[in-house]
Amino acid sequence: MTRVLVVDDDRQLLRALRITLTARRYEVTVATDGASGLAAASRTPPDVVILDLGLPDMDGVSVVEGLRGWTAAPIIVLSARHTEAAKVQALDAGADDYVTKPFSMEELLARLRAMLRRGDTPPVRVTIGRREIDLAAHTVVDGARTVRLTPTQWRLLEILLRHPGQLVGTRRLLTEIWGPGYERYSHYLRFHMAGLRRKLEADPSRPRHLLTEPGMGYRYQP
User: Fold this and answer.
1) Are 143 and 202 within 8 A, CB to CB?
2) Which of 95, 82, 212 shows the shortest CA–CA distance to 160?
3) What are 122-131's contacts with CB under 8 Å, separation 24+?
4) Do the Cβ atoms of 60 and 53 come closer than 8 Å?
5) Which CATH class is domain 3-116?
6) Can you give the three-state secondary structure of the chain, one letter per residue?
7) Using one digit for the tens of pLDDT, what is the confidence trace for 116-168?
8) What is the C-alpha to C-alpha distance for residues 46 and 35, in angstroms, rounded to an integer?
9) Closest by alpha carbon to 71, among 179, 187, 181, 188?
10) What's the Cα-to-Cα distance from 197 to each of 12, 204, 220, rounded to whole Å?
11) What is the spatial distance between Cα 179 and Cα 110, in angstroms, rounded to a whole number?
12) pLDDT, tens digit (0-9, with 9 covering 90-100), for 20-64
């Protein structure tokens, strides 16, 4: 299920967004200020962020910059600021789209779908050896046997599958999965990657698909 973080101090709008997104099968987390939004993103890394610029405790641009320090999740900015300078500032800080208030819910949903269609969205089904992986259903099947992954193993696998054949750095993986402050805990990755290989690779000691780049990070090789 796609995780959406909504940060806005307008409680009526926040409620409307939660109801609308939940009805469309998104997993929704809400926050009413910048600090709690950043904390929520750290606890449960979102797949996409909907962020109001006019927050009570800090400017939304600062929240964009804080998120961009460790996550590449798409950010859709909401704002009553209509000036070109405000839009440029938010986009330069790392936002992916800018929606001015008032807006229609259908327009926002269309922009959200567009963000999720971009290249960083993992494929729905992937085959690793004999294992059939369904990311939407969170299932792994090996013939007649179901292979169970932990939530952390799923998160690690999803990130790697978004970038087939590409190196994903250790720091990025740590911050996307566990949040800021975990950049030195590379042993966490080694532990969970070893678990993934035992469950998915034909020969975990000689992996063909879930590869380590020593001192740099990990790679999913189709």
Assistant:
1) no
2) 212
3) 122/158, 122/161, 122/162, 123/161, 126/161, 126/222, 128/200, 128/201, 128/209, 128/210, 129/200, 129/201, 129/202, 129/208, 129/209, 130/202, 131/199, 131/200
4) yes
5) alpha beta
6) CCEEEEECCCHHHHHHHHHHHHHCCCEEEEECCHHHHHHHHHHCCCCEEEEECECCCCEHHHHHHHHHCCCCCCEEEEECCCCHHHHHHHHHHCCCEEEECCCCHHHHHHHHHHHHCCCCCCCCEEEECCEEEECCCCEEEECCEEECCCHHHHHHHHHHHHCCCCEEEHHHHHHHHHCCCCCCCHHHHHHHHHHHHHHHCCCCCCCCCEEEECCCEEEECC
7) 876 555 566 788 888 898 877 788 998 888 999 998 999 899 888 877 787 88
8) 15
9) 179
10) 46, 5, 11
11) 29
12) 999 999 999 999 999 999 999 988 889 899 999 999 999 999 999
What span, in angstroms and rounded, lies between the C-alpha atoms of 119 and 30?
26
Pairing relationship of beta strands 75-79 and 48-52 according to DSSP bridges: parallel
Which residue ranges does the chain devote to CATH 3.40.50.2300?
A: 3-116
CB 171 within 8 A of CB 162: no
> Could you tell me which CATH number the domain at 125-220 has?
1.10.10.10
User: What pTM does this model have?
Assistant: 0.57
Residue tagged 């004999």 (tokens):
130
